[in-house]
Amino acid sequence: MNPLLTAGAAGLRRLMEAGEVSAVEVTRAHLARIAATDDKVHAFLQVLDDQALATAADVDRRRAARESLGPLAGVPLALKDVLCTRGVETTCASRILEGYRPVYDATVVKRLREAGVVVLGKTNMDEFAMGSSTENSAFGPTRNPWDLDRVPGGSSGGSSAAIAALQAPLAIGTDTGGSIRQPAALCGVVGVKPTYGLVSRYGLIAFASSLDQVGPIARSVGDAALLLEAIAGHDPCDSTSIPTEAPSYADALERGVEGLRIGVVTEFMDSKGLAEGGRTRVEEAIRRLAKLGAEIVEVSMPHASYGVSAYYLIAPSEASSNLSRYDGVRYGLRLPGETAEQMMARTREGGFGREVKRRIMIGTYALSAGYYDAYYAQAQRVRTLIIRDFEAAYERCDVLVAPTAPEPAFPLGAKIDDPLAMYLNDVFTVPSSLAGSPALSLPVGVDEAGLPVGLQIMAPILGEATMLQAARALEADLDLDVVPHGARTLEAR
Ligand code: GLN
């Protein structure tokens, strides 16, 4: 195994700064890894070999000239195909956006470029980020590097699988109801959903605008924190962006959990849908945190179980409005019709996949006159109750812990014809999405079948530092191998 593939972002940065390896060599190693493994994993929709090598060469040239470099100069990254990249096809894994080349970079992409990141390519996802398995991609599913017959989770399945397969040390995902945390859990990597408004959504193709957030995926808490620092901070182009300085997490990572009050959400731990193997690992992790000096507090979130119902009204409602822009006139696909109306209907019929159509219909129905109060407005009231549950919980503790996902990676096809079963993947992740508060998933070991289990750590609004602090302390204590076992056998298979 090429050590450049396992070094991680911080490690690669050190090697490049010490002059032991060039950005071009680092980039070549990762492109070669993608070439060797991605026919099996299919994490990428598009690999940008030439662009990546040109960026890396530029970093090397500037380093040689002693010019000032960004904090992630020469570090490769996999970018979810939901973020606009200037001149580079951006599809959201949808036929309706095939051929769409944005004329601008998303703010996150702009910041990544300023940080010196080398974008390796655009990763696969559920169409318009709707799903939990990446099977809703119009371009074929991504497979879990731990077991190629299983899903990587979703919707950021491509980004998470790329990290687990050692195709990149860093990736960008997006999370509306769990799409960073759940695939991170299923792929045994670290995924962080930041506070709503901490990272700009400008140039992020909208799914549900009151929930969407961009965040990092990596193999270590430290690397995820580095990437979050690079993308966070106020952006005048996004009206929901919080007017705050770009954060710094380095100190928090060293603090340990001594004296930290960690709340365990009773309703989540008692959930009937939680797989036994996962429950065992999560309970062990909580015991470890206690041994490290944290104070464990039991907390109740009585409305959390309504989260999925509220989310599956709010998110589709916002989606039905956001996706009305795909009419064959301005973006991507156009299927001809005799009238403008026929052209639009045919384009939408042919361009959207089944799940996207289902959401548009649910959302349109929930927002329609006569049903608005019973569905959308009611869901918003539930959202408020969940926010209050969190407020009460955080009066008694600094962070909350829970499982990330009810089940480990499931076989491809297992839930694709049962939307309700698929939606239930989100039970533990949607509450903090509805509250706009940060949450991450940390790998805490494997279950009896050898599949990774994630622990979710949640924090109050803008509590990223404390959340990362707890995650880093537990990560250090667990001392798991950063190389997922699947990644090691991938080439041989
Ligand atoms: N699985 C959830 C859904 O399908 C969450 C998706 C997301 O966070 N983008 O809506």
Short synopsis of the structure:
The protein is an alpha/beta fold. It has 19 helices and eleven strands.
Descriptive overview:
- 42% of the residues lie in helices and 12% in strands.
- With 493 residues, the chain is of the alpha/beta class.
- The chain has an 11-stranded mixed sheet with strand order 1-3-2-4-6-5-10-11-9-7-8, with helices on both faces.
- The radius of gyration is 21 Å and the shape is globular.
- The mean pLDDT is 96.
- Residues 129-132, 155, 175-179, 207, 315, 426 line the site of glutamine.
**What proportion of the residues form beta strands (DSSP E)?**
5-15%
Order of helices and strands: HHHEHEHEHEHEEHHEHHEHHHHEHHEEHH
Helix content: 40-55%
**How many H/I helical runs?**
19
Tell me, briefly, the overall form: globular
Main sheet strand line-up: 1-3-2-4-6-5-10-11-9-7-8
Layout: helices, strands, pairs:
Blueprint: H1 3-6, H2 8-17, H3 23-41, E1 44-47, H4 49-64, E2 76-80, H5 107-115, E3 118-123, H6 157-164, E4 170-175, H7 181-187, E5 190-193, E6 213-218, H8 221-231, H9 250-253, E7 261-265, H10 266-269, H11 276-291, E8 295-299, H12 307-322, H13 340-351, H14 354-367, H15 373-396, E9 399-403, H16 419-423, H17 430-435, E10 439-446, E11 452-458, H18 464-478, H19 485-489
Parallel strand pairs: 2-3, 2-4, 7-8, 7-9
Antiparallel strand pairs: 1-3, 4-6, 5-6, 5-10, 9-11, 10-11
Helix pairs in contact: 3-4, 12-14, 12-15
The structure holds glutamine (GLN).
